[in-house]
Amino acid sequence: MPEEKRTIRVVTRKSPLAMRQTEIAIEALGAACPHWDFELIPMSTTGDERLAWSLETSGGKGLFTSALEEAIVKGDGDLAVHSSKDLPTEMPEGVVLAGFLPRAPAGDLLIIRESVTEPALIATSSPRRRAQLKAVYPNAAWKEIRGNVNTRLRKISEGEAEATVMAQAGLYRLGIDHYEGLRFLPIPITRSVPAAGQGAIGLQVRAEDGPVFASLLCEQTARAVHLERAYLAAMGGGCHSATAAHFTDGQLHVFDEATGYRCLEVPEEVSHLNPTGMTEWVAEQVS
Predict the structure, then answer these.
(1) How far from each other are the two terminal CA atoms of the chain, in whole angstroms?
(2) Phi then psi for 57, rounded to 5 degrees?
(3) Tally of CB atoms within 10 A around 154
(4) Which of 37, 48, 76, 86 is catalytic?
């Protein structure tokens, strides 16, 4: 455990979910290092400011992370807190993904109006979710939807669409398990493979601080997310592409729009490789 007293400047997005996830991160790090102080620095990212943009057509890569990474590079912050599914596979020079907090439930939920049995119009900005769920709802029309968790729930409740799809982890962390007029239906991972890193809070720091923070974080979650990100990198995907990966119980569930759903059995020794070794193994499986 690091013993020196220091103040950690924590940069994060301003959304309610981002702020809650940052509170969770600070609580965990503070419990492990009670001599550390924390200064919270909320920031707006390009993705937060360009609500009219289509994440699919306007280049979603790094929209929710680049501003936080830049603050780390410039020395304006010491730690960036992210939803891991938003992180591109490439990092700026001098910045590392130190690790992850223990993962929350990682699956997707169908949020559907109570009066609807089979949704005719589903709203999502995720090409990954749309590509997979078209097979489940072949007759549905699709539209994009933007906004934070509560905004999207309100839009569905008010009839902007009959359903949407959201990450279970975000609702869990915000303490939302119901919403008037809506039903929350879990979607099996085999029907909607989550985004790589979904459900995991990732912490980015300068390279020299990486080992210090890594020693405080969840090794099991790190192994799973690094394996998922290895698949994302091997397929050339990003957080707003129709590529997905989720590791659980020795199996890597993957989806790519070109090849569909697959389940890869992962040898125990592979899950303990470093990220480079994982990437090499995954590349062999998908070649």
Answers:
(1) 42
(2) -95, -15
(3) 14
(4) 86
The residue behind tokens 């169908």 is 110
182-187 and 243-248 as β-strands: parallel, antiparallel, unpaired? unpaired
Are 107 and 187 within 8 A, CB to CB?
yes
Q: How many CB atoms lie within 10 A of CB 219?
A: 12
The 10s digit of each residue's pLDDT in 162-183 is 999 999 999 999 999 999 999 9
Is 194 inside any structural domain? no
**Domain assignment of residue 127, yes or no:** yes
Using only C-alpha atoms, the chain has a radius of gyration, in whole angstroms, of 19
219-234 helix and 275-286 helix, angle to the nearest 10 degrees: 40
pTM of the model: 0.89
- Whole-number Å distance between alpha carbons of 16 and 179: 17
Q: 134 lies in which domain range?
A: 108-187
Residue 86: active-site member: yes
In the DSSP assignment, the letter for residue 14 is: S
Strand segments, DSSP code E, in the chain are 6-13, 36-43, 79-83, 95-100, 108-113, 121-123, 141-143, 163-167, 182-187, 201-206, 243-248, 251-256, 260-265
214 falls within a domain: no
Domain total of the chain: 1
DSSP letters for 192-249: SPPPTTTT-EEEEEEGGGHHHHHTTS-HHHHHHHHHHHHHHHHTT--TTSSEEEEEET
Contact (Cβ atoms closer than 8 angstroms) between residue 264 and residue 271: no
Tell me, what CATH number does 152's domain have?
3.40.190.10
Q: How many C-beta atoms lie closer than 10 Å to residue 115's C-beta?
A: 8
Residue pLDDT, tens place only, 29-56: 999 999 999 999 999 766 554 555 455 5
CA distances in angstroms from 80 to 36, 99, 205, 252, 262, listed in the order given? 16, 11, 7, 27, 33
Residue 180 lies in a domain: yes
